[in-house]
């Protein structure tokens, strides 16, 4: 055997020994791991048993608790249902008692009805018997009347009907006359109270819109500067504004004369600014006039805003405010139309408050009732219709539109209360002292025309116009007119005066009929 083989054998033996040693050690490790695994599995089993016992106990506790809760809820629901059942039972008992009472009442009524029916049958038989007796008596009376009056039944009936108709007509006329008189007295008294209260509370100022305006000068030297060299400044002012300047001996004043109030106001504002600036020459005059004309739109708007603010009306359309401002430069009689509109609005508000009508709406109607006069030179039609169309255009209430349209209407019988109030307020403002001016000749002519118109009616002997045309008294002939015809005659006179004459306010018609008999005993 060689050395190499011996070494190989030793190496193989050594490797086998190592393998056996490794197997032994591995087996020993496996035994130890098995013992550890058995211990761990035993611990896990013990913990699982304990956890299972705990879960079982917790589940039993929850089940018991849920069972107690459900039992409690069931008991409460049972009590509630029992309470509801008791209430229903009480209601049913009450209804049964009510039904029993009603049945008793019905039975009692049925008994009473049967008694009444029996009584009615008896009365009916009695009435039939009496009716037969009456017919027999009427027939006998008719035969007797025919013998006495020598008239047939038809002729007697016709005569009776004519007599009854005449009596009924006379009685109806008398009652109508009494009712009209009483109604007129009551209405006059109430209207007088309302109007007097409104007039007492309204103390409007008298406005005098003349055709001239006075511009105050700081000194007499300013007159020469306004005239300019060879009058060029004054000619430039008159040409640019369309007014006439009057410079006379009046100290420290220049008079602006023009029939157009807007041009007159533009000229006045222009002069005030030129005087304040001190530079007065034709170029400066033209420049100032153009600037004032441009700014005049805002000035007009300010007048409208001030009027609406004074009345507490803050939601008017901007175009309406501009139209109101233009009324400041339109006049009616001796007052501006804007002042007349403000005055009418105040009176409307006072009268509406007394009558229980919407005060704000009444004030709006009073302020806007003449707004059409701002554009009536541009639009065809009556200013009341133009005003109503403008109010509708700018979103005013339909009641305000209708009242504005009817504020000059003659027949207000079917008009709204606001229209009647507006018409009365318009008359009060327009006809108050200082608002109108009438020439004496025209006044006398109007009174004579009223007298002549009344005298044309048949049966009237004389007529007198009293109280500056506010009352007409007509004396009728007793032979020509009966008492029953007096009221109709008065209505005809009033209708004719309304139709043919123009007069301020209201005219009272009084028709008098009197019979006098004079005898002498000798």
Question: How would you describe what is shown here?
Answer:
By secondary structure, this protein is mainly alpha-helical. The chain contains 14 helices and 8 strands. The protein has helices spanning 3-149, 153-201, 221-227, 232-241, 261-277, 282-310, 318-327, 337-355, 359-368, 383-393, 398-405, 417-430, 440-455, 486-500; strands at 212-216, 244-246, 253-257, 331-332, 335-336, 460-466, 471-476, 508-513. A hairpin with a 2-residue loop joins strand 4 and strand 5. Helix 9 crosses helix 12 (417-430). The radius of gyration is 55 Å and the shape is flat. The N and C termini lie far apart (218 Å). The model is unreliable at 202-210 and 434-439 (pLDDT under 50).
Low-confidence stretches: 202-210, 434-439
Radius of gyration, in Å, reads 55 Å
Q: Order of helices and strands, N to C?
A: HHEHHEEHHHEEHHHHHHEEHE
Number of helical regions: 14
Question: How many β-strands, per DSSP?
Answer: 8
Judged by helices, strands and strand pairing, the structural class is mainly alpha
What average pLDDT do the residues reach? 79
Overall geometry comes to flat
- Give the neighbour order of strands across the main sheet: 1-3-2
Task: Give the end-to-end Cα distance, rounded to a whole number of Å.
Answer: 218 Å
Which bin fits the share of residues in helices?
55-70%
Per DSSP, what share of the residues sits in E-state strands of 2 or more residues? Answer: 5-15%
